[in-house]
Amino acid sequence: MVDGTDSNLSLNNVETLSVGDVVKAKVTKVEDKQVLVDVGYKYDGLIPISELSGLHVEKTSDLVAIGDEFEVKVTKLNDDSEELVVSKKAVDAENAWKDLVEKKETGVIIEAEVKDVVKGGLVVDVGLRGFIPASMVERHFVEDFSDYKGRTLKLRVMELDKEKNKVILSHKAILDEEAKQGKTKVLETIEVGSILDGTVQRLTDFGVFVDIGGVDGLVHVSELAWDHVEKPSDVVKEGEQVKVKVLKVDKNNERISLSMKDAQPGPFDEAAEKFKKGDVVSGTVKRLTGFGAFVEIAPRVEGLVHISQIANRRVKTPSEVLKEGQEVKVKVLDINLKDQRISLSIRAVEEDREEEAERISRKELQQYTQENNQQGMGITLGDLFGDLKDKLK
Predict the structure, then answer these.
(1) What tens digit of pLDDT does each residue of 271-325 get?
(2) What whole-number distance in Å separates Cα of residue 384 and Cα of residue 392?
(3) How crowded is the C-beta side of 296, counted as CA atoms within 13 Å?
(4) I want to staple 45 with a disulfide (CB 3.0 to 4.6 A). Which of 86, 164, 199, 256 is the partner?
(5) Torsion-angle region of residue 67: left (phi > 0), alpha (psi -120 to 50) or beta?
(6) Please, are residues 231 and 205 in contact by the beta-carbon 8 Å criterion?
(7) pLDDT average, residue stretch 321-335
(8) The architecture CATH gives domain 22-92
(9) Among 122, 116, 145, which residue's Cα sits nearest to residue 55?
(10) What is the per-residue pLDDT for 387?
């Protein structure tokens, strides 16, 4: 056997060859279905297209060109007919097996180009035919692998069987490892209350799982929106980019609770911008309690009318004056954005109305007095005020 790895080996000094020898070869001619090579023997060797690679080859020129040098293994030799058949595939496969066994044992990551998309997965060139099952390509389900052809993937060697010529590889294993590292980092650095960008990964009946940088957090259905949500698909879809707020982090169980609604302006925030202290607005009595009434002044925004602010007289219970569903006018006394509380008053509206009525009456009285004095009717202010007082009773 001639050692083709010897750099001092000349392509012109091989006197004897035997089947199984590995020798250095130089391409002298490229034909459609075969390649001729000089191995330093008395006549050229022939490489059938099927012995060029462990993968399917359409044209020999896709792989080799005149002048290329590489090692080949003698598979057939007949000096009587000057027949010398050699294989590049056999040498590549042998070297690849040794390399893959070592990489599997050491856990080294390899990179390979996807050569073909076949039923059930992808075929890659790792010196021989490697197979990536569909379930080992990505962490998520992939319906169509057509755009994977030509891509270079990082792979982990999962299974080797030389007798069956089986090489099983996984890209998903690499992604899982990266995700685990990212998850650990996120769990160590994430803070409750943070607003983060995320990607919707999965929808369930009880909520949505969102990827926030290598780790999935759960947005419960009640935290998807400020409005009532029947099912998550009514609000989001897989792959959608969303903003979420971190509600809770359980590092021991690697669980993160998120909220989409808290990452958005809520009804109270909008109300705080819309209303200001002193505004008089319409509302609906939603609930009556022993200490007052809750009045909705905007969708999902309720303010409290304390029992002392229901009427301009003493009220024992709110139900004496109000009933649920009743439409009322209320005045905004205070807006507490931090605690999301709004103080309202019905009494203040009534008092403002009375003050306005009195102001108008005084204005009318003044105008009436001036007109009558100009006409010299001799009516005194006392007479006028007395008449007005009787009218207002």
Answers:
(1) 777 888 899 999 999 999 999 999 998 888 889 999 999 998 898 999 999 999 9
(2) 12
(3) 12
(4) 86
(5) left
(6) yes
(7) 93
(8) Beta Barrel (2.40)
(9) 116
(10) 53
Q: Which tokens hold the place of 3?
A: 């050692």
Q: Sort residue 193 into left (φ over 0), alpha (ψ -120 to 50) or beta.
A: left
- Spatial CA neighbour of 214 closest among 178, 190, 249, 188: 178
Alpha-helical runs (H) found in the chain: 88-106, 172-189, 267-274, 347-375, 381-392
Do residues 212 and 244 lie in contact, with contact meaning Cβ atoms separated by under 8 Å? Answer: yes
Is 223:259 a contact under the CB 8 Å cutoff? yes
- In CATH terms, the superfamily for domain 192-263 is Nucleic acid-binding proteins (2.40.50.140)
Q: Where are the beta strands (DSSP E) in 146-231?
A: 152-161, 166-170, 195-203, 207-211, 216-220
Q: Which two tokens stand for residue 351?
A: 């008092």
Q: Identify the CATH number of the domain defined by range 109-175.
A: 2.40.50.140
Tokens of 25: 């070869």
**Which amino acid is residue 201, in one-letter code?**
Q
Give me the CATH topology for the region 271-350. OB fold (Dihydrolipoamide Acetyltransferase, E2P) (2.40.50)
319 Cβ neighbours under 8 A, 6+ residues apart: 288
For 13-50, b/e burial (b = at least 16 CB within 10 A) is ebeebeeebbbbbbbeebeeebbbbbbbbeebbbbebe
CA 276 to chain centroid = 38
pTM of the model: 0.49
Q: What per-residue string of b and e applies to 159-184 under the rule 16 or more CB within 10 Å gives b?
A: ebeeeeeebbbbbbbbbeeebeeebe
The radius of gyration of the chain's CA atoms, rounded to the nearest angstrom, is: 43
Domain with CATH 2.40.50.140 in the chain: 22-92, 109-175, 192-263, 271-350
More confident residue, 309 or 180: 309
CA 235 to chain centre: 14
